[in-house]
Amino acid sequence: MRVLRYGLIGISLAIVSVLAVLRFTSLGTQLLGSARAQEFSLPAGNLGVPHERAMVWNARSAFAEEIQQTWAAKPLGDWQKAGKGNAPRVLLARLVTRTRLAETNDFLRALRPWGNSGSRWALHPDGDYDFTLAVLTAILWLRGDDPDTLFPTTRDHLLHTLLTEDGDRFRATVPRSLGIVNETENHILMTEGSRYLKNRWLQTHGNAAARYDNVANGMEEKLLAFLRELKTNGLYEFNSQPYIGYTITALLNLEAFAAEPVRLAARDVLDYLNWTYALGSYRLRHYPPFRRRYEYAAATSLTLGYQSAFMKTWLGYAPTPLEMTALGKGGDVHALFGACLPYRPPDQVVSLLLDKGRGYFAQLGHGPGASPEIYSAGSRFLLGAGGAHRGERANVIARPITLLLDDDASELADVFHLVGPGGDFRHWNNTGVERNFACAAGPVHVPSGFSAVRQRGDWRIFVVRPGLTVAIHSTPSRGLLAVFPNRDPDDVLRGILENNSDSAALSHRFRFPNGPTLTYDLAAPMDRWVMISRDGRMLDREYDRWPLLAGWFD
């Protein structure tokens, strides 16, 4: 017996040692995910999140109904291999559209849970069931009181067999990690949101057991505390590929079906996410820096981000629906959820998505060890910083600085962009964006179809839109881009040459004609903003401490 006890102790110590090593390595983030490992609180900043909703949305959307019908027509597939795949969403679509109900109910009643919730890794190989839980939870709440659609025996099987999480256990760490490794946001929200909503269903349908009382058992307060953290500090997995889609899915469930305090808290987080998307996107194209996963680092689509799929679906319900473009690879997975649940973005988010007004400058902080987002917008453009890589453990993918115009460009090659040095994002600090200006330690890419109307030395002047002139200076080790609204190209070139006659000084300084003088460090360390000063005023370069949302509107 003593030998057995010592053997178990030895195994436990070995597991702890492995986890401790994994927790602080890149391999660990691949196996166990990536989660916030330190506590901090960001200042709110001066760009508050809008929440006002006066817009009257349409009750129906042809675009959303097409998405639902497309999913309802898909085969149910192999449940045991479902994972993050199609079967749960096919069930959702069929029940929402009331399609093939007998077959769908029969299929559901025959199912058994295929795994367990929480991150999948070597000691938890059957994880990730919470991806399925989130969809099943929506099915319960959308059709559980409709016995003609979700038959009572099917509902009971769904509730008591397939929805595996209930009670008062709020798990914030990765399963079988001995409490050492923090769980990721998307897994916490999907698992604990599903647990909370199953409890709520049981209680609101007559089960008075104390374990299902979310207030008495502490679940509501724990979930509220987690949502408050997200509202205060933003997402650790900011702009994540692909996890932002699953985070939004879980939040949509809570916004639709939770008790009022949790519902409003979830809505606040959704509003924050959609406000940051509106600030950092143009015409539903979005190419920001992001955290997780490295295999998406080479993606060049400007429409890949799964938040764009939600936005397109919601805008299908707008008073004047937009003519929607393709959802992008994998976008239909998340568009279906947007088409089935009731959340709609605030009015100001909708107005800013396609119309940048007179423009703005925005700095989005993401806390210690992360990358900021920086955007400069005008009436017909959006200049977005690509961020900075913060080391392997940080899981931050830097991207090129991009200039988005009011056109239909959908690939990186189709837009002006800057990147450098070299072609590996691990060497990039592409935070060199100020108002109407960008710089990087590499050349400027000019998309085909654009020709310079003026050129002198390394300077080229482009009229990219009527009333919008762009000047670029490009060498293998230095790229500068400046945007001039409503300026004649001859005046732009003349003013640039007169104010920047010393070519060598361009490595650290640019003077706008009749405008500010900017200084910058193209070799800035990864934890510093490339920009140094504006008209001699030193800028706050330590972006680890930047507020959540700061800047100004013109």
Give a written overview of the molecule.
With 554 residues, the chain is of the alpha+beta class. The chain folds into 3 domains: 1-32; 59-346, Glycosyltransferase; 356-553, no CATH class. It is 35% helix and 16% strand. It is built from 15 helices and 23 strands. It has helices at residues 2-23, 26-32, 62-72, 87-97, 101-109, 130-143, 152-162, 185-204, 219-233, 243-257, 260-279, 306-315, 331-340, 347-354, 489-499, and strands at residues 281-282, 285-286, 290-291, 360-364, 373-378, 381-384, 387-388, 396-397, 401-405, 416-418, 429-430, 433-434, 437-440, 444-445, 454-456, 459-465, 468-475, 478-485, 509-511, 517-520, 531-534, 537-538, 550-553. The strands form 6 sheets. The chain has a 7-stranded antiparallel β-sheet, with no helix packed on it. The chain has a 6-stranded antiparallel β-sheet with strand order 12-13-18-17-16-15, covered by helices on one side. Strands 19-20-21-22 form a 4-stranded antiparallel β-sheet, with no helix packed on it. A hairpin with a 5-residue loop joins strand 19 (509-511) and strand 20 (517-520). Helix 6 runs parallel beside helix 8 (185-204), helix 9 packs parallel to helix 11 (260-279) and helix 10 packs antiparallel against helix 11. The termini are far apart.
What would you say about this model in short?
The chain has 15 helices and 23 strands. The chain has 554 residues and is of the alpha+beta class. The strands form six sheets. It has a seven-stranded antiparallel beta sheet with strand order 14-10-9-6-5-4-23, with no helix packed on it. Strands 12-13-18-17-16-15 form a six-stranded antiparallel beta sheet, covered by helices on one side.
